[in-house]
Specification:
Layout lengths: L1 H8 L6 E2 L1 H10 L6 H11 L7 E2 H11 L2
Antiparallel strand pairs: 1-2
Protein name: EF-hand domain-containing protein
Organism: Helobdella robusta (Californian leech)
GO molecular function, one term: calcium ion binding
């Protein structure tokens, strides 16, 4: 279930979600995040510091949002 959601966000299939990909999906869901909000979301969950969200980090993000 998390993998299917991750794959929707990972538009280019590189196994990581960029700030741009995160924004695209959020806008499709009717949200309008600012660049700063997107950067903050990435920063908060990017445990390896590469500026993107990998699958393991995405699972943590979803689990926290669903609490």
């Amino acid at each position: 279930e998390y993998r299917a959601a991750f794959d929707l966000f990972d538009e280019d299939g590189n196994n990581a979600i960029s700030k741009e990909e995160l924004g695209n999906v959020m806008r499709k869901l009717g949200m309008n995040p600012t660049d700063e909000e997107l950067r903050d979301m990435i920063r908060e969950h990017d445990t390896d510091g590469d500026g993107q969200i990998e699958f393991e980090e995405f699972c943590v993000l979803l689990a926290q949002r669903m609490e």
